[in-house]
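F.,

This is the one I mentioned.
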């Protein structure tokens, strides 16, 4: 997080700003890095355009994109609390990512995190608070920059970004804070960012959606019967961006599939017909899928416990997948 308050992504180039930036990656590189992070954590890889132009700012040797903002504003009309994704260059040696709650005013922060004073008693924590050392990954840490902006951050594990995001967004306290400050993510072109993060959390086993889908399919792949939980992904049939809130968490809206099948289903390269037999997008795709052990004899194999009512609901969404995803 570093030491300078947010400024626009196309700031007036003063001599001071130029001096502070000369050791950093340039703005274009930062956008590429932030886009890359969002793409890696976006199951649908929907990056048709760069959504960061109006939302990337510079603070010393850090760049960020704002994912959500509170409806509460300060006297300058800016959000009192925001959720930011950061791309940082510490000591001109190490690049890191962080997801943060950023507070414009101290009273709001102290109200939400009364434990901060005890946290500071540890010498290591005090150095983190003063931005003197890079924090450890996958821990909630407090930070304060010279402009007075205060953060509750999770630094992201580069080897397991999903888990770090899950740790932040699924934390009960973070959920309450988002609700308390009415933080909204439906912000113009960046609305899809948080939607995809929420979807990611569901897909890697952090959400109610996946758990309910596991119950429908007895915790096994809907095609192969594989029950290795680490290999199973809950994939939506009707695209997330086209779903109502209710449809997004409906376990009938999708299939529990092993990773290879999920990737193909997610991209519309395969689907299942009215009799739940596998369909391929083209003969070429069918031929290539044989190398993955996927062939035309495969089909959905519902467990005996799956009721006719459940089957009908699943088929409703499969029909949408066939027309909206498979044929595109």
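My design for it:
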């Amino acid at each position: 997080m570093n030491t300078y308050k947010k400024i626009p992504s196309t700031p007036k180039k003063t001599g001071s700003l130029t001096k502070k930036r000369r050791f950093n990656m340039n703005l274009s590189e930062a956008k590429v890095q932030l886009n890359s992070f969002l793409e890696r954590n976006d199951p649908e890889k929907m990056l048709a355009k760069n959504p960061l132009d109006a939302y990337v700012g510079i603070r010393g040797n850090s760049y960020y994109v704002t994912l959500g903002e509170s409806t509460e504003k300060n006297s300058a009309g800016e959000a009192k609390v925001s959720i930011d994704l950061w791309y940082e260059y510490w000591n001109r040696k190490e690049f890191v990512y962080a997801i943060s709650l950023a507070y414009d005013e101290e009273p709001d922060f102290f109200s939400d995190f009364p434990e901060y004073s005890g946290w500071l008693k540890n010498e290591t924590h005090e150095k983190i608070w003063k931005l003197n050392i890079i924090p450890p990954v996958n821990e909630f840490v407090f930070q304060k920059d010279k402009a007075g902006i205060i953060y509750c951050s999770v630094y992201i594990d580069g080897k397991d970004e999903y888990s770090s995001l899950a740790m932040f967004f699924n934390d009960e306290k973070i959920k309450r804070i988002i609700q308390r400050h009415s933080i909204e993510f439906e912000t113009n072109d960046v609305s899809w960012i948080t939607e995809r993060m929420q979807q990611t959390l569901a897909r890697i086993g952090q959400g109610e959606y996946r758990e309910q889908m596991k119950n429908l399919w007895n915790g096994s792949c809907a095609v192969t019967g594989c029950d290795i939980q680490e290999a199973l992904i809950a994939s939506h049939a009707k695209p997330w961006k086209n779903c109502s809130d209710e449809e997004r968490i409906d376990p009938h809206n999708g299939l529990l599939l092993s990773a290879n099948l999920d990737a193909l289903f997610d991209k519309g390269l395969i689907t299942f017909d009215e009799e739940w037999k596998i369909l391929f997008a083209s003969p070429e795709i069918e031929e290539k899928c044989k190398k993955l052990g996927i062939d035309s004899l495969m089909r959905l194999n519902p467990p005996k416990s799956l009721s006719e009512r459940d089957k009908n609901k699943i088929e409703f969404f499969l029909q949408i997948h066939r027309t909206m995803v498979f044929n595109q």
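DSSP finds 13 helices and eleven strands in the chain.

Talk soon.
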